[in-house]
Design goal:
The protein is of the alpha/beta class. The chain has helices spanning about 45-55, 70-90, 105-120, 140, 150-160, 180-190, 220-230, 255-275, 285-300, 305-320, 330-350, 360-365, 385-390, 410-420, 445-450, 465-490, 505-520, 525-535, 545, 550-555, 565-575, 575-585, 590-600, and strands spanning about 5, 10-15, 95-100, 130-135, 165-175, 195-200, 240, 325-330, 355-360, 400-405, 430-435, 450-460, 495, 495-500. α3 runs antiparallel to α11. It binds 1-O-phosphono-beta-D-fructopyranose. One of its GO terms (molecular function) is enzyme inhibitor activity.
Length: about 600
């Protein structure tokens, strides 16, 4: 496996931790040396590489470099924030805890908030949690990248959610410390300290926070972070920003960034709930023990390398021949299916139909702010009934169906749906979380219908942490591996970069320009020029185009495909945009097309 580690006096340092490793990039955007050859790896090796990358989440700090999840400062801040939540739980009148983010960060805010509010309802307690996702609830299931760039929209949404509240703990999530939407909210909190206490969760050191100007603002994300740092000295603001290492696919913060968000926020909220309802005070040792349970979850999940690889192969095979992958789930593991599926479009330029999630009980089970969204179009029809009507009739053996459930779900229902799907395809697989010793009736029946069953057995009383949270994380890791691996096998990744990235917000626009620089060796200005030509499908840039801002460019990009690959082919061969288009039509595997161009240059 690629990537070099050096052992220094205190701990093992990974190559990416050295200050001269891609120094201009924040950790969340660096390329991970462990996955440099992931585009050429076998399914088994892809899984092993993803495991190695995910393991970096729990790596201990090596002196003088980055603070990590288990660093003293991070654990102490987790405790401090947990105690603030505890105060609100004990006296919820006129108070709120808000979790907010864009894309995956907002989806995880939704998952965590609905889960912890449910726990409160079961204890007959007032719900104190609210979530905000940039772009509203439709962003839970589809890519809405543009609202991420709007700090004012972030601020206004927060203000509305908190109307009439006297005390708000605001937790803003931006893995890259970069989303203007979240920056606007944090700034607003600092302007109203009598009500709001801001907390920032992300995975870069503060000096790497994004410093680009934002529309209509005098502040940048970095300047917001600097003000928060000042306030954190008197505990008027909190920053939880351990480094978890670069993503397996550069910048794909849905992966480690998302998993770490889930872990961190569950650590905070679980500790607060235990302190309030079971008289277990928030302790340093307690947080570390709980963290260890998550680490074990990662180990338990990846112990099934061969089974995960088999799923990834099946999904990859379906995508390669233009067929689809369906996740059919129950309960909160189904939500992780919906989330994973929704990310394939912005991440890999996938079609909405390529990977699609369905949940038993639909929006009733999801319990989202805006209720049923099915009227927004067929993309938003998410129940199993919708699957039976919209998808099943056209399924065949080339489509992959993946059942996601746990032993607390209605296994009879799972078996019933498996039978229905089996009428159309034999390519059915199951991912099933069960508790030690609890043999589910009908499981044998399901096993017979499936070409593979990935069963994960958990000890009934984990040392620490809710079993459901562990099942969710495990499912997230598995699905991220399946969808990422399948798109790698489809040829969407070049080395460890998403070359076919959508250019639908300013972060992605900058990333695309950087990628072109890296692969072509040309200066930034020439690469941005090529990007714009490809985006607007012209060979000469007009004044209209060059005088427009990034917002206009990213709006145009919404309706375009293969923008970055086209720009790269133009840069490398000097051909016109139309010629590049026909070139890519002949060779739809982007990686192969790029390599052909690169090889012609040597
Ligand atoms: C937010 C986000 C990602 C998404 C894509 C665009 O990033 O929407 O969730 O996958 O990369 O950005 P962040 O604010 O959490 O860094």
């Amino acid at each position: 496996m690629a990537g070099t580690d050096w052992t220094c006096s205190h701990a093992t340092m990974h190559a990416w931790e050295f200050l001269d490793y891609e120094p201009s990039l924040p950790v969340s955007e660096k390329s991970n040396p462990l996955t440099r050859d992931i585009d050429r790896a076998s399914a088994n090796n892809i899984v092993r590489m993803l495991q190695a990358c995910d393991t970096q989440i729990f790596q201990e700090d090596s002196e003088d470099t980055y603070q990590r999840l288990s660093s003293e400062r991070v654990v102490e801040t987790i405790m401090e924030v947990a105690k603030r939540v505890e105060l609100i739980l004990k006296d919820p009148q006129d108070s709120l805890v808000v979790l907010s983010g864009c894309g995956t960060s907002g989806r995880l805010a939704f998952l965590i908030v609905t889960g912890f509010n449910k726990a409160l309802r079961e204890l007959n307690q007032t719900s104190i949690y609210s979530y905000i996702i940039a772009g509203g609830d439709r962003a839970l299931l589809s890519s809405q990248e543009a609202p991420e760039d709007d700090p004012k929209q972030g601020m206004l949404t927060l203000k509305k959610v908190c109307e009439g509240k006297k005390r708000v703990l605001f937790i803003g999530i931006s893995c890259g410390l970069s989303a203007p939407f979240v920056a606007g909210q944090l700034d607003f909190c600092m302007q109203h300290p009598e009500v709001y206490t801001p907390v920032l969760v992300g995975f870069n050191p503060t000096h790497q926070a994004r410093d680009d100007p934002m529309p209509g603002c005098t502040f940048t994300f970095r300047s917001v972070v600097q003000r928060m740092q000042e306030l954190s000295k008197s505990q008027k603001a909190f920053l939880i920003n351990p480094a978890v290492g670069p993503e397996a696919i550069s910048g794909s913060s849905r992966m480690k960034g998302g998993s770490s968000t889930k872990i961190l926020l569950e650590l905070v909220l679980s500790a607060a709930h235990a302190a309030t309802f079971t008289n277990m005070p928030v302790t340093y040792k307690g947080i570390l023990q709980h963290m260890e349970a998550y680490k074990q979850t990662l180990d338990i999940t990846y112990a099934q390398t061969a089974e995960i690889a088999a799923l990834l192969e099946a999904a990859g095979q379906s995508l390669r021949c233009g067929r689809r992958v369906c996740y059919l789930g129950w309960g909160s593991v189904a939500i992780l299916g919906l989330i994973d599926a929704s990310e394939c479009n912005p991440t890999f330029g996938a079609d909405f139909e390529d990977v699609r999630g369905f949940i038993s009980g639909g929006y009733r089970e999801m319990n989202n702010n805006e209720g049923p969204l099915s009227s927004l179009g067929s993309d938003f029809r998410v129940t199993h009934k919708d699957f039976l009507h919209l998808v099943l009739p056209s399924l065949n053996d080339q489509d992959t169906v993946l059942l996601l459930y746990t032993h607390s779900d209605n296994i009879r229902e799972v078996a019933k749906l498996a039978h229905r799907a089996r009428e159309k395809t034999s390519n059915i697989h199951a991912v099933y979380h069960q508790v030690d010793g609890a043999a589910a009736e009908q499981q044998d029946d399901i096993d017979r219908l499936c070409s593979s069953s990935l069963k994960i057995t958990w000890a009934s009383s984990p040392a620490s942490g809710s079993l459901l949270h562990m099942w969710e994380l495990s499912t997230k890791l598995l699905l991220n591996a399946v969808s990422t691996g399948a798109h790698i096998l489809k040829g969407k990744i070049y080395q460890n970069d998403m070359i076919d990235v959508q250019v639908t917000n300013s972060k992605l626009y900058r990333r695309a320009t950087r990628l072109l620089q890296k692969l072509s060796g040309y200066p930034e200005s020439k690469c941005e020029e090529a990007l714009l030509k490809s985006l607007y499908q012209v060979d000469t840039l007009t004044i209209d185009i060059t005088s427009s801002d990034i917002t206009a460019h990213t709006r145009t990009a919404r309706n375009r495909t293969k923008v970055v690959p086209l720009a790269l082919v133009c840069l490398l061969t000097g051909c016109t945009v139309m010629e590049a288009e026909s070139h890519l039509e002949q060779q739809p595997i982007v990686r192969e097309a790029v390599e052909t161009c690169l090889s012609k240059l040597v």
